[in-house]
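User: Can you help me understand a structure? I only have the sequence.
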Amino acid sequence: MVEDDDPSAIRSIALSPEDAVDAYIYSRENPGDAVLRVTPPFHGRMRARIHVYRVDDTELTGAVHLSPADVIADDVVADYPDLESALENADADEADRVRERHAEAVDDWQARAREAIADSVTLETDDGPHRIELKPLG
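Assistant: Let's start by predicting it. Here is the structure, written out as tokens:
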């Protein structure tokens, strides 16, 4: 690996809490995956941006994908409102109210999740695990 392509050069990644939350919600509610993407050349301080894909191209691009579930605190991720379970127990007359309550619950969850960005994350590199700091923007 060329030095600029080695993710172990990264010490910290700046990211938008909104991007992390939006990526998490997108992956839960839509086909395809949303991640926080960091692209080479790699250096000490990097910036992650939201990236949506259906086919993982990291082998081609050398990019690093951070799962939004890894950058949001575990307890907050676990509290994401589950629409499918709520709809299972609702009859046809209640479905619209369940969807409205779910939308409100997701809004509340988003506010909590934006404040729950982890302090660090571990990247898997050719040399083994590499811990990096996360720096929320804003």
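Now, to help you interpret it: DSSP finds six helices and seven strands in the chain. The first helix runs from residue 17 to 29. Let me know which part you'd like to focus on.
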